[in-house]
Fold this sequence. Notes:
This protein is mostly helical.
Amino acid sequence: MDKLKEEVAEQEQQRAKVKSKIQQELNEPQLALDIAKKKIQCISKLSLMEIRYLRVVPELMKETLLARSYLLNPLCVTDKSRDISKFIKDMLDFDVATITMEQIKYLESNFTNCVEILSRERVTKLIECWITRYEIFHECPQYLVDIMLQYTLLTKLEWKFQSIDRQSKVMGAIADWIIACVNIAKVLHRIQPLQGDLDRLNVSIASKYDELQVLQATS
């Protein structure tokens, strides 16, 4: 019985470590998602109605709404709901654990296209400024190469969010929610091995506690 108790204690320590690792991974993206949801809660029905009845909906707004619909239901990217309350509730009640890697890859590749163009344009302007200033037309200096690399490595979704937020605070809140959902979904997929370890430890510890109860009852 003593050996069994030692095994339980050891596994409980392992479980605590695994739980701590999982929590550390989830803390930041969960906080971002909570903040994004608060922004969604602050969206007024009037604001949504005004956007719905725009004669010409800007391309970034269309893209944001399509991304939202794809995240909620990848089989139907057209949101036909006329219920404003449901439009908001669907986002607040959405389970990010249902987001697949296929959805993540699609959103990261299709929801960020114009961001790549924006980055290239900004880098081009920096190079043109350097050339104009020094009237030199040969190789680009290393610091500008580094800047180009930084633009390439920047989170594209964050760049897209800034562009959308400038056009519409409502769409900016929705874009922020999409970004937060994608980011936490990526973490959930990454920690699946840890979650598997935690599940196995839970089963093993529960089984050992059952054994202990039987031994204590018969002793």
